[in-house]
Amino acid sequence: MAEPDIKFGTDGWRGIIADDFTYDRVALVGSAIHEHIRESGRSSQPLLIGYDRRFSAECYAAHLASHLSSLGQQIVLLNEPAPTPVVAFGVAHLKAAGAVMLTASHNPYYYQGLKFIPYFAGPALPETTDRITELISSIAPSFTPPPLTLEWAGERAALKEAYFAQLDTIVNANSLPSGGFSVMYNAMHGVGAGYLDGYLKRAGVPCTTINASRDVYFGATLPDPSPANLVPLAPQLADHDCRLLFATDGDADRFGLIDTEGRYFSANQALPLLADFLVRYKDMRGDLARTVATSHLLDDVAKEHGLRLIETKVGFKYIGELLRQGALIGGEESGGISVAGHVPEKDGILACLLTLELAATTGETLHTLLKEMHKRLGPRAYVRVDQALSEEQKRRLFSALRTYDEPKFAGRRIASRNDSDGVKLIFDDGSWVLMRASGTEPLVRIYIEVTNPEMLNKLRGHVLDAVKSLAE
């Protein structure tokens, strides 16, 4: 059976370990990245290689380092598994041509992945990933796999202390213990272990860490800080007298948290709270950025402070580009946030620390702060639904949506629409729905936000009925 094509997107290439993600194919992708670096005129700069805690990640990294070194590329391999945001920071810190990060993020344990982080220390833009994909195709026919090499004797780098020093320039570490409460950190057996809890302990914050060991099966679950994975842990907060539980995904670029009542706080809630905190308490200014699928509560914060709100297509690469241009903070609903002064890459560790600083500085619970924001700016409620549809049904749905010119959808009057990434319909009361087709699964992702929380379930039902009707 032929191996599937290597599809190299912003989140890199992901595959099943020892099936399509093999040592030979890792070397092939590495050769394409090496050629891209040469074309970019950065061959004289080192290439950083980082890796997560997945099965044989350190072996893949050593093999890739050895192969690229044999091509004449200067290589710096990290001395331990590290979070993606730390590797991104390392690119800037070491003035590298870029980095290769071996990670499959929050995917199942049997996946591994490889992503390229360019010289500017943020997600690669489409022109870069498209070019790497072209180079893979052109190199593959004549590519001779190198001998398997599982040890690396070359240069290594330790980044933890330098990364902590970087965090010190953004987070007021001295304020963190002033909240007077303990926290829990669920590392989800990922590479955030020793980083978020290490920084907290150094700052004097009592922190109980769970799931910190390396487990290539991730405790028989996904290393994803989702409500399903975090809310059941609420009783452990009371058992350890902790007020908040923070969690990061497998490569620690995304985050989630719950309080003692089991209330889950997503990026949709944390992003506007943090933006307001940066402006109100840290006296910072700048554009606020979010993806098209992210809550418009951030828009309300921007309006309150007289700031510009910029909406992008889905993908942190677009947020990262705005951060590079001077945006104050940017994020996406799936759990990625970063801020001015940091690398333009999503950082779950930083997001958790800033959220803790917010709670410690204000002396209020996150639930109280969010209630106050809703009272001030108006309430919002949000849900995402993954609706299973066949490829033919998806085709019919979006064909109908492209020409949809009715004044109402799902019983709501349409005020405007945005077709930049899927189909987003904004209703006259400020509620909205976004429909995007999955490129890898037989489903449509539906995002819904209402300005009257009591109407969320009703609108959800009407939207699903409308989607099914248009897909028939």
What does this structure look like?
With about 475 residues, this protein is an alpha/beta fold. It folds into three domains: about 15-155, Alpha-D-Glucose-1,6-Bisphosphate, subunit A, domain 3 (Alpha-D-Glucose-1,6-Bisphosphate, Chain A, domain 3); about 160-375, Alpha-D-Glucose-1,6-Bisphosphate, Chain A, domain 3; about 380-470, TATA-Binding Protein. About 35% of the residues lie in helices and about 20% in strands. β14 and β15 (about 335-340) form a beta hairpin. α1 packs across α2 (about 55-70), α9 (about 265-280) packs parallel to α10 (about 295-305) and α14 (about 390-400) packs across α15. The two termini are about 35 Å apart.
CATH architecture of the largest domain: 3-Layer(aba) Sandwich
Q: What would the average pLDDT be, to the nearest integer?
A: 96
Number of helices: 15
Quick one: how many beta strands? 21
**Alpha-beta content class:** alpha/beta
**The CATH topology of the largest domain:** Alpha-D-Glucose-1,6-Bisphosphate, Chain A, domain 3
Specify the CATH homologous superfamily of the largest domain: Alpha-D-Glucose-1,6-Bisphosphate, subunit A, domain 3
Mind telling me the C-alpha Rg? Answer: 22 Å
Q: What is the beta-strand fraction?
A: 15-25%
Question: Assembly state here?
Answer: single chain
- Measured as a percent range, the helix fraction is 25-40%
Based on Cα principal axes, name the global outline.
Answer: globular
Q: Domain count, please report it.
A: 3
Read across the widest sheet, the strand sequence of neighbours is 1-5-4-2-3-6
Specify the CATH class of the largest domain.
Alpha Beta
Distance between the termini: 35 Å
Main beta sheet: strand number and arrangement? 6 strands, mixed
* Low-pLDDT runs: none
